[in-house]
Amino acid sequence: MNKVAHILSIGMLLAGSACQDLEHSRQVDNPDVRGKTIALQVCSNCHGATGVSVSPTFPKLAGQRKEYLVDQLTDFKSHSRADPNAQRFMWGFTHLTDTQIDELATYFSSQSAVLGETSDLALINEGRTIYHSGLPDKGVVACVSCHGQHGEGMNQFPRLAGQHADYVTKQLEVFRQTDTRPRGAVMKAVCANMSDREMRAVAAFVEAFPPEEETSASPPVDQ
Ligand code: HEC
Ligand code: HEC
């Protein structure tokens, strides 16, 4: 070992032994570490420091309802939310205490939600209709009645506005095809008869959640 490496390794040993600083702890399994610290040092790797993830594999958590976050973290912890990505990415967090779960939920729910881009207008407008009116012929209930006028959710009903469209579509498929989300009975009924296209449409709409005038195909001529 060369001299510099040797000094560095001694330094790291000393720092390690003196490391009582829980504010900067990476020991997620230590029950004394605060939720916010875990959020910034662990969860942020996938969900972003403020809960605004980049990849659609990882749901955005910013501005998500606190009650919903607590429910989901509890379900991951008990391994009852069991779709493949939940197992792969979220099942490791069995050591989070109720207090840490509460603090994590408080942290992410108080971050500002960020809407996605407005892309395919035809798809988005199709999705807007489903969101606000449902598909009465197919027994698809309007999303607005539970997820809110602005997709903001309420209590156990999650925020949808801003969520990655690919993640939304994936979860709709999970609800429709499996029973791996323990609180998903309502959603299973909602999307039982939705086609893939309809799922993608409503997902594209909620990700961008644009006001009506931004996407109207034929603006009034007197403008
Ligand atoms: C290695 C990447 C990774 C890390 C680290 C991670 N997550 Fe996740 N998380 C995911 C993935 C992937 C999903 C989506 C699972 C699915 O598709 O069902 C998810 C889902 C969630 C959900 C459900 C969101 C929703 O809209 O239903 C919550 C809440 C959550 N994570 C919170 C956390 C918290 C809090 C931490 C830190 C303790 C954390 N995650 C750490 C990858 C990660
Ligand atoms: C009767 C109430 C109700 C209606 C109507 C409803 N939902 Fe839900 N939705 C819920 C509840 C409750 C959950 C949370 C389920 C859970 O905790 O697993 C949920 C969860 C979801 C999720 C998962 C979010 C995430 O972050 O993982 C998506 C996506 C979703 N709903 C989309 C829709 C869409 C799109 C519609 C309209 C076609 C709709 N919902 C209509 C009650 C409803």
From TrEMBL:
<keyword id="KW-0574">Periplasm</keyword>
<keyword id="KW-0349">Heme</keyword>
<feature type="binding site" description="axial binding residue">
    <location>
        <position position="47"/>
    </location>
    <ligand>
        <name>heme c 1</name>
    </ligand>
</feature>
<protein>
    <submittedName>
        <fullName>Cytochrome c4</fullName>
    </submittedName>
</protein>
<dbReference type="GO" id="GO:0009055">
    <property type="term" value="F:electron transfer activity"/>
</dbReference>
<dbReference type="InterPro" id="IPR009056">
    <property type="entry name" value="Cyt_c-like_dom"/>
</dbReference>
<dbReference type="GO" id="GO:0005506">
    <property type="term" value="F:iron ion binding"/>
</dbReference>
<keyword id="KW-0813">Transport</keyword>
<dbReference type="GO" id="GO:0020037">
    <property type="term" value="F:heme binding"/>
</dbReference>
<dbReference type="InterPro" id="IPR050597">
    <property type="entry name" value="Cytochrome_c_Oxidase_Subunit"/>
</dbReference>
<keyword id="KW-0479">Metal-binding</keyword>
<keyword id="KW-0249">Electron transport</keyword>
<dbReference type="Pfam" id="PF00034">
    <property type="entry name" value="Cytochrom_C"/>
</dbReference>
<feature type="binding site" description="axial binding residue">
    <location>
        <position position="147"/>
    </location>
    <ligand>
        <name>heme c 2</name>
    </ligand>
</feature>
<dbReference type="InterPro" id="IPR036909">
    <property type="entry name" value="Cyt_c-like_dom_sf"/>
</dbReference>
<keyword id="KW-0408">Iron</keyword>
<dbReference type="GO" id="GO:0042597">
    <property type="term" value="C:periplasmic space"/>
</dbReference>
<feature type="domain" description="Cytochrome c">
    <location>
        <begin position="122"/>
        <end position="210"/>
    </location>
</feature>
<feature type="binding site" description="covalent">
    <location>
        <position position="46"/>
    </location>
    <ligand>
        <name>heme c 1</name>
    </ligand>
</feature>
<feature type="binding site" description="covalent">
    <location>
        <position position="143"/>
    </location>
    <ligand>
        <name>heme c 2</name>
    </ligand>
</feature>
<feature type="binding site" description="axial binding residue">
    <location>
        <position position="187"/>
    </location>
    <ligand>
        <name>heme c 2</name>
    </ligand>
</feature>
<dbReference type="InterPro" id="IPR024167">
    <property type="entry name" value="Cytochrome_c4-like"/>
</dbReference>
<feature type="binding site" description="covalent">
    <location>
        <position position="146"/>
    </location>
    <ligand>
        <name>heme c 2</name>
    </ligand>
</feature>
<feature type="domain" description="Cytochrome c">
    <location>
        <begin position="30"/>
        <end position="112"/>
    </location>
</feature>
<feature type="binding site" description="covalent">
    <location>
        <position position="43"/>
    </location>
    <ligand>
        <name>heme c 1</name>
    </ligand>
</feature>
